[in-house]
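stuck on this fold:
=====
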Amino acid sequence: KESAPGPGKEADGRAVGRVKGAAVVMSEPKSPTPTPGDTYKGWLFKWTNYIKGYQRRWFVLSNGLLSYYRTQAEMGHTCRGTINLATANIAVEDSCNFVISNGGAQTYHLKASSEVERQRWITALELAKAKAVQMQAESDDSGDDFPAVSPNSGQGGDCRNTEIQSTLRTLNSKVEDLATCNDLIVKHGSALQRSLSELEGLRVAVDMGEKVKQVTERATLFRITSNAMINACRDFLSMAQSHSKRWQKALQTEREQRIRLEETLEQLAKQHNHLERAFRGATVLPPSFRGVSGKADASDEDDDNEFFDAMEEPFDELSLASNPESPQPLELEPVRQRRTRIPDKPNYYLNLWSIMKNCIGKELSKIPMPVNFNEPLSMLQRLSEDLEYYELLDKAAKSHSSLEQMCYVAAFTVSSYSTTVHRTGKPFNPLLGETFELDRHRECGYRSLCEQVSHHPPAAAHHAFSEKGWTLRQEITLASKFRGKYLSIMPLGSIQCIFEKSNNHYSWKKVTTTVHNIIVGKLWIDQSGEIDVVNHKTGDRCHLKFAPYSYFSRDVPRKVTGVVTDKDGKAHYVLSGTWDEKMEFSKIMQSSKGENGTEGKQRTVYQTLKAKEIWRKNPLPEGAENMYYFSSLALTLNEPEEGVAPTDSRRRPDQRLMEEGHWDEANAEKQRLEEKQRSTRREREREAVKAASAHPDTYQALWFEKIDDPVSGETLHIYKGGYWEAKEQGNWDMCPDVF
């Protein structure tokens, strides 16, 4: 280990780009000119100790961190030290030497090969430090930055809006770079002006050489900073011009589409008028109308029928089918337009600590909580939110490779946590026998049903199936403990996904959710732990690691990493990203053994292809901060629907009153429902005693039955059928009186 000539020692060797102790080797482009936001790298001489003196080291400046290696080859696996510029002090000693220190255990004494090279490094370091300080100031204690918006939201308007927002953020970043460069130019320009003024006042020729050297040095620094400013301006202008052309083209396309739509609507109105007149004046109905009442609409027509021949007068306009510019035949049962807003959350103050201080160490489900700490959704609806990124399972169903399919399933498991990042409200505990259906068959191709199958311990069963060839089922029991400063929620039970075409059967469990700052400060959510996604048919496995948030960690907050291996343990894919923003996956081309880690285990070094994005979080709807930070899907979950079961969460009165802002009434209704549930349980226990039952609580779920799964070896509730048939018939006589 090297040592600096000061009180601090350099950090021990650490691997970079690791996935569970494995390093991912990727090439980085060289950047000889310090440009704001770019990586800057090169050779510098670093003081090691009094015996070896200065030694040549490879330094890399990236994302506000200055790291160094003994050689360029070490970049893939061993970092010799890293210093965070946000808290570092940069000092110039002479024409080639400078010092970087964080005021603690790290101090780098560095020497450049020339004065110009030193000025390049100083400029790059000052730019990076300014940007790192700004980014640190903008983040709060919990690190809750809004995630990047999704480019693949599934709707054209959302995609364009997302692209615009992303571009505006990029342009804003460039403007901030320009502002940083401007501050540096003002700083170095003032210094240069002072030197010139001092030069003019010199009278003794002996002092001239030293002052000329100082002016030359400051002029060089000013020139380098000016070049950085020019480069930043060029980048900004190029990007602005590029996106300006794209937006103009997109706007023109939108205008043309609107004109075509208006023409089509006008044509439809004229055709409807002609059809109405012809139908009223017709003496003989065409075959397609026979046996149909006069009130029959177009939904009774067969697409192949030519009923225009029965009209008494010809059309002046072309039919839709003959018009290439017209859209496809309209759906006669349009997809339901779901709501996009709920009433804003009232600003009612209630001291959480006054309620929670007597509950330390208790089970959360047994703590009577007012609705003030809830969100207007039940736990069954929160389970259904796991399907927000169902497209990942659709893509997995189409995969021909089980290993690639595993990547999509792993990304799906991570995506289910993305809705929780700002959701500090507690969902309603479902009542025993409560259900929730999510019928998105027409829009998304799937149907979902949840039922509360046990009250103590609280357990919910979930079943979803898709016409795309996958089935998702889970049974979750929540165990929770209040620890004083934070609340831990441990989901027990498992989740399973079965693909019809390949018969691949996957299972996994959930990680621990922690709510921090219960006593004081802003509440924030963290997910931590490890998940093993297992394909029971092939033996493939993906080990995912959710890193707990740490203020002192250099890692990205909410980081998730994973490795996909086959039944023999050979690694094929690496996954990395964050659970609140996006995930990427890379195909492994080669692996090799590296150095021993901190725990004595030998690390594996993976060489991969370029990473590809596999999932990205959808942007939150406008005004989400006033609507409990609900996603677009969550906003629709409690929307009233006709035909659902009387036990459906949408019909729960306390939850409905809370959503509408009547919290006092909601609290009273919540107490009534809880007392009713206790009375029902006592009555059920009395009947069980009369029947001499070995189990006092003999409650049987209505739509699910408990079985031993032969594939995973687990015992869980499986959907036994009948719900959707009962809904179609409108027969809910078998449902219990829950509300």
User: Anything to note?
Assistant: The mean pLDDT is 79. The domain at 374-595+602-616+629-724 is CATH 2.40.160.120 (Porin). Residues 52 and 86 are 30 Å apart (CA to CA). The first helix runs from residue 115 to 138.
